[in-house]
Amino acid sequence: MQGRDRSLRWIVLSVAVACAPALAGTPEHIDPVIKKMMTDVSRERLESDVRTLVGFGTRQTESATDHPTRGIGAARRWIQAEFEKIAATTGGRMTVSLDSYTDAPPSRRITKPVEIVNVVATLKGAQPESADRIYVVSGHYDSICSDPTDSECDAPGANDDASGVAAVLEAARVLSTHEFDATIVFAAVAAEEQGLYGSKHLAEGYKSRGANIAGMLTNDIVGNSLSQLGVRDDKHVRVFSEGVPEIETPDQARMRLATGSENDAPARQLARFVDECCAKYVDGFDVELMFRRDRLMRGGDHTSFSRAGFPAVRLTEINEDYRHQHQNVREEDGVRYGDFPEFVDFDYLSNVTRTNVAALASLAKAPARPTNVQIVLDKLAPTTTIAWEKNTESDLAGYELVWRATSAPTWQGFEPVGQTHHVTVDRSKDNYFFGVRAIDRDGFRSVVTFAQPHRK
Ligand SMILES: [Zn+2]
């Protein structure tokens, strides 16, 4: 009887969610405080920050560190001062630090010993059982011109990646006025263009300290809405995520082949979460999920975090214009080359920033994603039994089971299951993918943990 009731409920939910495709896998829970944050994001401050960063002339990794107004040293001192201004208003909840090293191995793009410095602001979580759960958001503040080793050329880097750094600074301003359960780290990272040196150091540092980096978003090239072919799209941002973990073990590879879970790495669940947050909070703006870890054959600062074993995704504009990336400032056949602020769409950058704010606030207010979510395989059965470990948060309200067809890109339906830690449903594990997420008493939902089989 109970089983039949449940099947009926599945059907009712399936019909109801079909009406709202953007949120099909999530109930409509709009938090008024996060909604208000959307109007706190300032286009004017974003533009001012991008122009200030461009004003340092070049932020190339080997450029001047001692000049007061030109070069990477002046740029990072300004970023540090901006973070410190924000931190000063938080009553000690936000702290600012430099994560630096000088012994980067020489390479094609690092020609001399150089100090690589990440500027990091940490907004400490307020819930004791969640404060050590960390979400990182980054942009890279270094820039380059056509020759990556040229430290003298002008390299304005307005879109690549002053836009990302400005988004991080503005997210810090908006989010720091609120309190969250988990910790949020705002990072302006260095030497991305030389080979991800800054983010690698940051990610490996977290890994060596055993830090719980529950999610990482990098913002890189997030300010231009006009493609090189003249097509404007100011309504979408791409979110790239790996479907198979970079650090997959041979055992995990065998399980992936046996279950068809090549679309379900933790980073992909994070990307789906960002997509849902954007749909809920950012009016007239959408995430375009990209089912690859980066653009074709490319990488970014999220790659450093993926390699350290953390779920990480990349936000990038939908259409790029390569005449304004990594180019010497010049005019050729009537075309202006160079990465200038006039090619940045600051309304577009505002919406990308809102997407970050909505996602980070939702992540840091929500419980941790459930652990050890397992499909129990004790016998062949037409039902599916899923078990998981209990969360530790004091304000936990329960869990939701989510599911989707094997060919569906995003979660299609959900079922509240209460304060249990196992459930059996009348759906075939052969025909559906399942996941579980935790919910707190305020209705905040965690990222989904994908359910994998466990053999007894
Ligand atoms: Zn970049």
How does this model look, in words?
This protein is α/β, with parallel strands linked by helices and 456 residues long. The radius of gyration is 22 Å and the shape is globular. α5 packs across α10. The protein has an eight-stranded mixed β-sheet, sandwiched between helices. The N terminus is likely disordered. Zinc ion (ZN) binds next to α5.
How would you sum up this structure in a few lines?
It is built from ten helices and 18 strands.
Bound molecules: zinc ion
Mean pLDDT: 93
Helix content: 25-40%
CATH level 1 name of the largest domain: Alpha Beta
- Per the CATH scheme, the topology name of the largest domain is Aminopeptidase
- Percent of sequence in beta strands: 15-25%
Summed up, the helix count is 10
Order of helices and strands: HHHHEEEHEHEEHHEHEEEHEEEEEEEE
Distance separating the two termini: 29 Å
Radius of gyration: 22 Å
**Inertia-based shape:** globular
- Counted up, domains total 2
Named CATH architecture of the largest domain: 3-Layer(aba) Sandwich
Largest sheet: 8 strands, mixed
Strand ordering within the main sheet: 1-2-4-3-5-8-6-7
Q: Which structural class do the helices and strands define?
A: alpha/beta
What's the structural blueprint in terms of helices and strands?
Layout: H1 2-17, H2 32-40, H3 43-54, H4 72-87, E1 94-101, E2 116-123, E3 133-140, H5 158-175, E4 183-189, H6 197-208, E5 212-219, E6 236-240, H7 250-259, H8 266-281, E7 286-290, H9 301-307, E8 312-317, E9 330-332, E10 335-337, H10 346-365, E11 374-377, E12 384-387, E13 396-405, E14 413-418, E15 422-425, E16 432-440, E17 449-450, E18 452-455
Parallel strand pairs: 3-4, 3-5, 5-8, 6-7, 11-18
Antiparallel strand pairs: 1-2, 2-4, 6-8, 9-10, 11-12, 12-15, 13-14, 13-16, 16-17
Bound molecules: zinc ion.
